[in-house]
Design a protein that fits this description.
The protein has 1002 residues and is an alpha+beta fold. The chain folds into four domains: 3-451, Na+/H+ antiporter like fold, CATH 1.20.1530.20; 530-738, no CATH class; 745-861, Jelly Rolls, CATH 2.60.120; 893-969, Jelly Rolls. The chain has 39 helices and 16 strands. The chain has a four-stranded antiparallel β-sheet. Strands 2-7-4-5 form a four-stranded antiparallel β-sheet. A four-stranded antiparallel β-sheet has the order 9-16-11-14, with helices on one face. Helix 24 (530-554) packs antiparallel against helix 25 (560-575), helix 24 packs across helix 28 (609-642) and helix 35 (851-860) packs across helix 36 (862-879). It is elongated, with a radius of gyration of 35 Å. One of its GO terms (cellular component) is plasma membrane. It is found in: Cell membrane. InterPro entries: Cation/H_exchanger_CPA1, Cation/H_exchanger_TM, cNMP-bd_dom, cNMP-bd_dom_sf, RmlC-like_jellyroll.
Amino acid sequence: MSLEGQIIASGGHEEAAGGHHGGGDCMTDHEQPYLILFVIMGLALGGLLRQLNRKTGLPYTPMLIVVGIIVGCYRGSFGLIGSSAELMSHINPHMILFIFIPVLIFESGFNCDWYVFKRALVNILILAGPGVLVGAFMLGFCLKSILGYDEDLTWNGAFTMGAILCATDPVAVVALLKELGASVRFNTLIEGESLLNDGTAMVFFLVFFGMEKGEESTPVSVTLNFLRLAGGGPALGFICGMVGSFWLRRIIRDDVLTSTVTFITCYFCFYFAEFTFLGVSGILSIVVLGLFMSAHGRTKIYPESEHSVHTVWSFVQYSCETIIFLLTGVIVGKEMVSQSTIEFMDWVKLPIFWVLMMIARALMVFMFLPCLKYFGYGINKAEMWVLIWGGLRGALGLTLALIVAVDTDLQDEVKFPLGRRLRQLTIFYMSGVATMTLLVNGTTCGALVRYLQMIEVPQIRARVVKNSKRNLSNACDDKLKELKMNTFLNLADWEKVVEISGCSEIKNELVSGAEGQASGRRSTYSSFDEQEICSETRFRLLRTLKTYVWEGYEQGQMGPEAAQLLNECINVSLDNTNLPLVVWNNIYSNFTDFATIRLMFRLKNWILIGTMAKNYITHHMAFVYEVTTAFITSAEEAEHLLHNYPLGQQFINKIVNELKNQVNDAYKYISELQNKFPEIIKAIHTKRAASALLETQKKFLNEYKNNGYIDDGDYNDIRKKVDMRCLELENMTFNWQEVSELQSFNTFVLRFPIFSSLLPEEIRQLEKCHKSFNFYAGNEIYHEGQKFDYLYVITQGTVTDALSASDKSQYTMIKGMGAFLSFANCVNENNSRSVSTAVAETDCTLYGIPFATIKGIMSQNKIFEKKVYLYSMIYFIRIFPEKAGPLRGMEENHLNEYIVKSEFLALNARQSCNFEFGGYLLVGQIENTDSGQDNIIDEFSYIPPSSKSYITSKNSYILKFTEVLERKQSIMDAHFEEQGVKKFNQNLVSSSNQYVADESQL
């Protein structure tokens, strides 16, 4: 049992000198309902103060402690509420430590940004380790020597008080910084310091307190005790985190059990640390457990349950925070007016000590400032002052002070003549300091942050925010027009509606700015600094990448570990957007090198370790492939937004090239994987395809359930089977012996889906006429515009396929094993002329099918011909981007997913067709029924959605879309912004005469 556990055991049922007693054992049946009343009224009062906080901006926790102090001081005047507060103030402080503190610390660690925490870890350890020790010694010195408590305190007693007074409160600090809107990295530094220094302050407190009580100790025993407490706690937290994660990983669609497991893990970890033979620090174990769950455990939670878990923990954290701060205020109010040995001079010394405490914290920060600037993110001058001023004290410090106050050993005045004074000074100073820091520091920290201009928004970012508000105003105006046509709202007071909804306030904010008064001016970003433009563009691109990553995770396109790694690597680039993009470099650094993987391949047939080697290869290679393909897909989806930014072409090209270089490197790595490990990649492809089908089943079932097509019972029956298949797929292993390493034409090429529609005689044609080709790295396979003799299939190596677009831009595609070069050459109007240039990136082996054979089969097999045209679409969208409309920005796989749902039409001349959702003209020419040259659409062009009919001018192949093509548009799009400004100004002019217009309609 730890020293803290011994303290809890010894003080659990004894009455404290300051009026505290053991709690439940001394409570009568008549008194017990008062506890329920206090909790209910506390939460109700907290709800009112939370509403007040939202309306006035007053910090929440300082308001709670002020109300608590008032209730504590005048509890006799509040009737039943006062009685419940009086009873609650007698709660044993050990119960506060055991019930409330684990929840508050775990929730804070669990919701911490692990990547930012990891980057700031050295600075956090400096502040929470040597920083707390230095602070404890300085505060102890101030109490004993400067404030004149030399006769009242021993040095051990002074250092015990110093350790207690050094413990900053994570709940108070985090709540304050979140309200102020400080940066995530600075929030994490403060929060991390508060989390860890709670544990280290607790350890120092236990050591000094034990020495004060005369426990036998030597320097060696003190050191070993410290190491056991400080080292054993984190180790236990890590182990509990692994066990909890293992359990969470095996829970499917059970929100209740998932939340329960997190609570079990939290309290079991604390109990096992404090009340068993281990005797380690429970607080440090909870800190590490929370951080472990943030880093690894969160991704083990089933995606559909994650929101519920966070909702439950947010509620529990809010409830505990409200009750503990209200209770803190009650105890502070009660103790500060009832301590018998507290004299007038103690009250005089209290504000002096508060000043000394702030000076001591400043000296501690100055002492370690060179290290704080060097490691992690570093801190600037403004952050340094906020770090000093933001060291709020609260729940944990008061809990430790109350533990001292109720300690039975110190009540023996013969053995400890200064024990009574130590107990009362501890609770007095901790109560006073907690109150002053929360009321003074807490309420003025916002003003300090604003004065130091810590939260500074770049001008270009402020411009984007202004565009958002303008578009919000336009959307509200459109909705207002619709509402005015609603016959059920005829009697509405529209001026009042605009006022209540805040629409007029938004308009006034925009009009007050210079841009809001401009009319008809084309918006531009040319006035901004080049570095600022590139930095902001990278920032928005990376944020878009993060959005795509989490969308892919939520849609089941990647696993939690892959999403977490991608998110972390994007965060690295977000740390400094002044530097070129390095997302792929960060991703690649997390992969195992090929030499290690080859070693595992050699070990896979060994006895005992062979199974481990196989599992490692399967899981690691699948993870690598998943991360890489997810990055490529997300990056290519995000790239088209860059083209919409109203920046100079040189800026656009710079960022686009940075992103393309990253994507090309990823493509090359994928190709290298396929070349070196074709058997495992084939197994990964099989597993991912099966996973995609299972995700489709989930989505389909959820949609049918939500629409009421199937009831809950039928849904659960079917969904249970799907979930079991998902679990089986996740644990599936592959028989390595079944995978053939021979890539023959029959077993490799003819198994591709595009050849599935061929007749037996057509397959025999391909078998007879194919040839094998070898190209060395740098060899040109074919050149754009030159004669094209073969359709190639890559069986080994990597090829770059480059094409020239009609807008003079260049586009390069990286092709690996299994890729075709290229079906676009088979549908090119120049017949046997290539549309691109293919060059071997590495030594390559290719199968070649004669061009004439492919053309002959296309003329006989219309299904095969359709597939060839569909496979070639991506090339012509890239070659003619100005004719591709919204298709130009789509990533290849997403484009394929969209067109496979579309309808392929082969129309003769003078046939008509409607395109409600648009389409794409592959061959031929069409014109709108409203005749005119502007309505003619040529081949390889996007057909915009229209309610009017089109007529073919000649035989045509058309892809008719059957659903809406969603397109994400950048808010920085030049045309988009110009239209927004124009619409806003028009609405502004019309609104000035709106009342007159409405009257005329009457």
